[in-house]
UniProtKB/TrEMBL annotation:
InterPro entries: Mur-like_cat_sf, Mur_ligase_C, Mur_ligase_C_dom_sf, Mur_ligase_cen, MurD. GO terms for molecular function: ATP binding; UDP-N-acetylmuramoylalanine-D-glutamate ligase activity. PANTHER family: UDP-N-ACETYLMURAMOYLALANINE--D-GLUTAMATE LIGASE. It comes from the Bacteria. Pathway: Cell wall biogenesis; peptidoglycan biosynthesis. The keyword Cell wall biogenesis/degradation applies. Residues 310-423 form the Mur ligase C-terminal domain. The lineage of its organism: Bacteria, Pseudomonadati, Bacteroidota, Chitinophagia, Chitinophagales. This is UDP-N-acetylmuramoylalanine--D-glutamate ligase. It comes from Niastella vici.
Length: 446
């Protein structure tokens, strides 16, 4: 009898797992409580996989040998509770994919901020070095589907805390933890510690042969590091102190040391600007050295990397006013990094679905750099409460177009309009990409 694999959620990770499961001889059933995108319907049908949409048929789910739960489904979901109560093992997509990776190697990247940039740069370094590699995980392409349809020797995987929650054996050869700040607390019973524990799981199965790269300047990481028995080789990186192993920046010079390999590079040669990106570049460069990539190749990759859409993306300058799209800033810490890199008077577009945000960390930067706040969300009370004494101008808007017009109205030549919302986007937009695209469109129409 083939094992019954039930998959909750027919998005990228769910459909990828279904394809790999089918290929490996499982009896696969996919169930989605909402609508299923047409492209995913076509893929499921192409492989002859049974699926349902807009419902969960319990008798077809609770007879599973194993359940793959998509990262978007919370533990407090009633169906998940029933699955747990029956003792059916629940795994994540990266756990399932890991079983079938063969001899390939994995560089796994997680963190509250900077993980997408670090993952993309890490992939660019591997490609520049001529590695047979794929970019997978939270960044857009399913790890399981990649293994099923086009296996590679190397996988560079962006991994969210939700994906780490349901791992058992998943073990990256190189793990990168960029930093930890309060995010997604609504999913972790509003206990920061639960979220921290999820992030550290990236290193829990590592052995003495593996590497763990982390930020020595991040107070949360350093406070909790000792609490976990991590067996892999530690490689910290820092902007504040010189390190014999790992990475540091001193007087504008990056030094990266792994065992006997050492590389140096001037930060002015990085295509990624801003202090937070110096950390991301150190992390990815360390990753490159650990997997044996030559210094020259890493240097070329760091100098040729193009920044990402929706992450501090310059849109346009109109009548002396610069517009920047940082829609991917879905938590307060991301917005802090964005504001920290601002060198001109700023009109900040802020707001959306609040995930239990504490805005107080932004207060000093807002007083110092922000002329006006344009709120973009259905409920902006918390933002008004937080900053009513710090800026003179604050308005509510209900669309990207309204927000852009209001911001442009407040701006003078030489100012910057920054969309860096600090919140999720689901109240007015499909996702952060949609929010960023609508912002860019509205800027073009000014």
């Amino acid at each position: 009898m083939s094992k019954r694999l039930v998959i909750l959620g027919a998005g990228e990770s769910g459909v990828g797992t279904a394809i790999l499961g089918r290929q490996k001889g499982y009896d696969v059933f996919v169930s989605d409580g909402g609508a299923v995108k047409e492209k995913y319907q076509e893929e499921l049908n192409k492989y002859g996989i049974a699926w349902e949409a807009n419902q969960h048929t319990e008798e077809k789910i609770l007879n599973a040998d194993e359940v793959m739960k998509s990262p978007g489904i919370p533990e407090k979901n009633e169906l998940v509770k029933k699955i747990r109560k029956k003792g059916i093992p629940v795994i994540s997509e990266i756990e399932f994919a890991y079983r079938y990776k063969g001899n390939s190697k994995i560089i796994g990247i997680t963190g509250s901020n900077g993980k997408t940039t670090t993952t993309s740069l890490m992939y660019h370094i591997c490609k520049t070095a001529g590695f047979d590699c794929a970019l997978v995980g939270n960044i857009g392409y399913s790890f399981a589907k990649q293994i099923a349809e086009d296996p590679k020797e190397w996988y560079v995987a962006e991994i969210s805390s939700f994906q780490l929650d349901d791992i058992h054996t998943f073990r990256p050869d190189v793990a990168i933890l960029t930093n930890i700040s309060e995010d997604h607390l609504d999913r972790y019973d509003y206990r920061f510690e639960n979220y921290i524990h999820s992030k550290f799981r990236i290193a829990e199965n590592q052995t003495e042969q593996d590497y763990f790269i982390y930020c020595a300047d991040d107070p949360v990481t350093m406070q909790y590091l000792e609490k976990y028995s991590i067996k892999s080789n530690p490689l910290p990186f820092s902007m504040s102190k010189e390190l014999p192993q790992g990475g540091f920046i001193r007087n504008g010079q990056m030094t990266v040391t792994v065992d006997d390999e050492r590389m140096q590079m001037n930060v002015n040669d990085f295509t990624l600007k801003g202090k937070h990106n110096q950390n991301n570049t150190m992390a990815a460069s360390l990753g490159g050295v650990t997997v044996g990539i030559r210094k020259e190749k890493i240097r070329v990759a760091v100098q040729t990397f193009e920044s990402l859409a929706h992450r501090m993306e310059p849109v346009s300058t109109i009548r002396g006013v610069e517009f920047i799209n940082d829609s991917k800033a879905t938590n307060v810490n991301s917005t802090w990094y964005a504001l920290e890199s601002m060198e001109r008077p700023t009109i900040l577009i802020l707001g959306g679905v609040d995930k239990g945000n504490d805005y107080s960390i932004l207060t000093d930067l807002i007083r110092e750099k922000v002329k006006a706040i344009v709120c973009l969300g259905t409920d902006n009370r918390k933002i008004h409460e937080a900053f009513k004494n710090d800026v003179q101008l604050m308005v509510n808007t209900a669309s990207a177009e309204e927000a852009v017009k209001a911001a442009f109205h407040f701006a003078s030549p030489g100012d910057t309009v920054l969309l860096s919302p600090a919140c999720a986007s689901f109240d007015l937009f499909k996702n952060y990409e949609d929010r960023g695209d609508q912002f860019k469109q509205a800027v073009r129409e000014l």
